Amino acid sequence: MKNTGRVSALFLLLTLGTLNLWAHNGYKNPILRGFNPDPSICRVGDDFYLVTSSFEYFPGLPIYHSKDLVNWEQIGHCLNRDSQLPLHKAPASGGLYAPSLRYHNGLFYVICTNVSGGGNFYCTAKKPTGPWSEPIWVNIDSIDPDIFWDEDGKTYFVTQGNEGIRITEIDIETGKVLGPEHLVWGGIGGRFPEAPHIYKKDGYYYLLLGEGGTEYAHSATIGRSRNLLGPYESCPLNPIITHCNRAGQGNIIQGVGHADFIQAQDGSWWAVFLGFRVTQQFAYYHILGRETFLAPIDWPKDGWPQVNGNGTVSLDMKVPTLPNHPFNKKPERIHFDQEKLGFEWQFLRNPIRENYSLNERKGWLRMNTASYTLNDTDAISLICRRQTEHDFEAATFLEFISSDVNEEAGMTLIQNNTHHYDLFIRKEQNQYIVQLRVKIGSHEYIAAEKPIKSNQIKLKIIGEPLHYTFYYAEDNSNQYKQLGILDTRYLSTEVAGGFTGVMIGLYTSSNGKPSKAKVYYDWFDYIVQ
Length: 529
Ligand code: 6LW
Fold this sequence. Notes:
Blueprint: H1 2-18, E1 25-28, E2 40-44, E3 47-51, E4 57-58, E5 60-66, E6 73-79, E7 100-104, E8 107-114, E9 119-125, E10 136-137, E11 146-149, E12 155-159, E13 165-170, E14 177-185, E15 194-201, E16 204-211, E17 219-225, E18 233-234, E19 241-242, E20 253-263, E21 269-277, E22 279-281, E23 283-285, E24 291-301, E25 304-307, E26 316-320, E27 333-334, E28 347-348, E29 356-357, E30 365-368, E31 381-386, E32 392-401, E33 408-416, E34 419-428, E35 431-440, E36 443-452, E37 456-463, E38 467-473, E39 481-487, H2 493-496, E40 503-509, E41 518-527
Antiparallel strand pairs: 1-26, 2-3, 3-5, 4-28, 5-6, 7-8, 8-9, 9-10, 11-12, 12-13, 13-14, 15-16, 16-17, 17-18, 17-19, 20-21, 21-24, 22-23, 24-25, 27-41, 29-30, 30-41, 31-40, 32-37, 32-41, 33-34, 33-40, 34-35, 35-36, 37-38, 38-39
C-alpha cells in the first residue's frame, strides 16, 4: 500500500513536471520600474518589444526587448537624432506623449506625438534597434495616435478626441490624410477617452481605451464591433482595468490604465499598462512617475477580455508566465570608461554635444558648465537616469575646475524645472563649499552647507520612501558626513504635477553667466536592493 502511494506520488510529480505546471510561476510588478508610462507592445516571433513615453527627455522613446514579458532590457531609443526630435525649450512634460509600437509587413512602426513641435508622426525601422526613419508627419490634431491596418489593405490613424476615439484613413507611404474623420466610441463616460488601440479577433474589432484621466480615477475600457467604424458595444466587464473601486482600495499600486494587449507565442494574452506605486504619509503620493505593469488576460465570457480576474494587479503576481528569460544585471558602478553612455542616461532636451566628453580624460565624464540652470527649460548641462525604487543609494566622485562663485557642479534629484533637490559644490572666495538646495515651486533656498577642503568630493544620496538623505565625503575617503534630510513628497507628481518621475542627475551650471568651468565625474553608483 505504502509503496503504491509512493509510486503514484512519483508519477504525479513526473506528469506535473512534463506538463511544465510548476515552472515559471509568478513575477514581480512593475515590469519596467521608474518613469515608463503609456507602454505599447508588439511581438515578432519569440521577441517582444515595448516602448514608453519620454516627454522632454532626449533621446526619445526608449525601446525595450523581452523574451518572457517579465524580464526586459533596453535596446535603444527610437528617436536619437535632433532632426527627429526637436525639443527646443520644451516645457516640463512637453515633448513626446504616448507612443504606439507596431510591426507590419516586415517594418517596425512607432507612432507618436511631439506636443512641443510638429504634432503627430510615425517613424519606421527594419530593426527595433534602428536606425529609425525621419518622422512622417500626419496632419491630424490630437494625441495618443495608433495605426491600424485593416484586412482590406486600408490604413487608419486612430487617435484620442474630446468626445471619444477618432479613426481616419491615411496613406501609409506619405502620412497624407485620405478620409473624413469618424468619431467611433467614447468609452463608458469617463473623462479623457484616450490611448486607443484596435485589435481584430474572431471577426470583431476590439477598441481598447484609457479613461478617467491618468491620476487616481484612471482605467482601461474596451468595446467591440463587427465594423471598424462602429457602432461599438461596451464590454460588460468594463472597466476591465482599474484600481478606482473597492477592489483597488488600499492597493499600493494606483492609477492603472492606458493599456495595450499582446498575444504570446503560446497563445496566452497579456496586458501592459501604466500605474504608479504610492507612498502613504497622511495622503497618497508618488515620486517614481508612472511605471509599466503586466497582467494576464482571459477571454471567458462571450469573447470578452477579463484582465487578471477582477481588473486589479499586485506587486507579487502569482500567475503562470512564459519560460523565464532573464538578462544580465547592470553593474552598480559606472566608470565612464566606455565610448558612449548607456541607454539609461538621458539629457533634458536636445543636448549641446560639445558640453560632454568621455574621451578628454579617459575613465571620466567631462561636462562643460552651461549658463542654464536646472530651473530653465533649456539645454542644461546634465545627464540623468530614472529613480526606479523608493530605496536606493546613488553616489559619485567629482572634480570641479571653477573660478567663479556662480559656478556649481554636483548631483540633483529632479522631477521638473520647478521641483528639484540639488547637492553640489562651488567656490566661495578662497575655499570650496558643499551645499544642499531646495527648489519647490516658488520656494528656493539653501537648506545646508559646509566648507570643504578641495575641489574634489564624493556626493551620495540615500533614498527611502519618505526621505532623501544627502551626504558628502572628502579626501576620496568613504567617511561620509550627513548634510541634510529632505522629504520625498515635495518631488511627487501630486506636488510637482506633470507626467514624469524623479530622475537622478549629474549636472553643472554657472547660473546665467558665461563660464569656462568644467567638471569631471569619475564614476556613478546606483544601488538598489
Ligand atoms: C497620454 C495620455 C495619458 O498621452 O497621459 O495616461 C498622457 N495617459 O494617454 C501623457 O502620458
